[in-house]
Please model this.
Amino acid sequence: MAGAKKSTGGSKDKSTNTKASGAKDTKKKKDKGEGGPKRAEIIVIVNEQQALKIIQNSKVITVQDLARQTGVKISAANAFLKESTSKGIVKRVGGYAGHHLYQAVSS
Model:
């Protein structure tokens, strides 16, 4: 007892669904960056006294160690160590490919 097959719509004329060749799309696409709430810029500052105490008490320190011990992100700890290197507070003594070792400059 076979029933009648249902039409899948594949045999319909598709020319009725397409736009005329001269018609233009009047809708404007919304840019992804527009309309949404603006993101707030978050600035994390490393406590300099705490960080310098940690650096003074260790032979060498990495960015990852400093970030873990001070409770900040690695990027903030890296920025602090780079700034301290330029000021002459710490010096880079080893490491490679972004995994550098830093040491306090003896006064």
